[in-house]
Design goal:
mainly alpha; 2 helices
Length: 82
């Protein structure tokens, strides 16, 4: 007997669908019975949320852009001198 797949309920499934999808009707009945027995859902401990991810690079300030431009111009001037 194959125990890797749940057995289908013959009353719930047509013969051509027997091996295509498992029967969930009995599992749903068990779940509903458990909910009716204890309807209060236990509170879960809240965890600290993860840090938000930034997908875009941080904007550079005016001073940083000006400094980078000076560096680029200096490398161009050195390339011209050679």
């Amino acid at each position: 007997m194959d125990t890797s797949r749940p057995r289908a309920c013959p009353a719930c499934v047509q013969p051509q669908q027997l091996f295509l999808m498992p029967c969930h009707c009995h599992a749903e009945l068990q779940v509903h019975a458990a909910i009716r027995a204890n309807p209060v859902q236990p509170k879960k401990a809240r965890s600290k949320p993860a840090d938000a991810k930034k997908w875009q690079p941080r904007k550079s300030t005016y001073e940083e852009r000006k400094e980078r431009l000076k560096q680029k111009l200096a490398t161009l001037m050195e390339a011209d001198d050679e």
